[in-house]
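Entry 12.
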Amino acid sequence: MDAIQQNLVREVLETAWPEIAGRCKLVHPVGGGLSDGRVFRVSAGEDYRLDALPDSWSQASIAFEAFLLSVAEARQHPLVAVRHGAYGRPSFRGYRWQLQTWLPGSTVATNDWQAVHSRSAASALASLHQLLPSRSKDRSFAMQRRLRMLETLLKEPRPVAPRRLRVAENTVKVPQPETMFGIARDALVFVNVANDLALPTCHVWGDAWRDNFLFDGNNVSGIIDFAAATIDTPLLDVARLSGSIPGTAADRQVAIDAYSQVIPLGESDRKIIAAFDISGVVLSLANWLRWCEAGLPVTKTPAAAERITHLVKRVQEM
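Predicted 3D structure (tokens):
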């Protein structure tokens, strides 16, 4: 955490929560590295979680976060924290800031991730989905967006891509454009079918990536980063989680099967998850390669290198 971030966090605490600022001993970032949101752990006698929520958050994101807090305050689900005090959400430097009680646990590194973590994360996700109020059936907005993005990608001229890409301190072997476009064509077939289906919808997390689960031992103790929350099918969350799990297709299937033990998934549900997964992989990697070419700051972090490496491995398996 650089000095600029340290000073900003301390300034926010002194302005909005002076009694916490006076006891503050340590601040360090714990999440939100690849999104517009930021999560900080504040040690001030006891530990707090300070969220920096972008002013640009959608109403769906705000509604989902408010729902999670109501769930926590009613003690219906242990995975979200209770807001500290009645201070609202002060706006400062383009963010809305929120102080909450700290949830125990930490994220699990890629090399330490095991099947038990996949099962625990999927079960926790399913138990959260069980609490979400259902809405009417509708076509998936996320699937419609994937369809448009795939069609746009396939119309683009084939770039001359480098064989290797330098990301942070890592060198990543880049799939060639024809490989990427071939997967995009396959994904378009899946997405075209899924796009016509009317699915049960509700407020969903939208970013159930494994890095956004906190673990205490092998059990999920909390979830973070709701910037991508939206109204859509819960299958979007299942695909996001399973697609983020390192290893083989069998490793990812562990999460889907664990979710299905709580909320049964039919064959059509699994096909929709596959459509979200294959389209998400190819579109995400295409975006990251564009951002690397443009030299965006987010591509120069270790977290970016890990995400790109994961997506490249997924493409190589397809």
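Annotation: The mean pLDDT is 81. The two ends are 37 Å apart (CA to CA).
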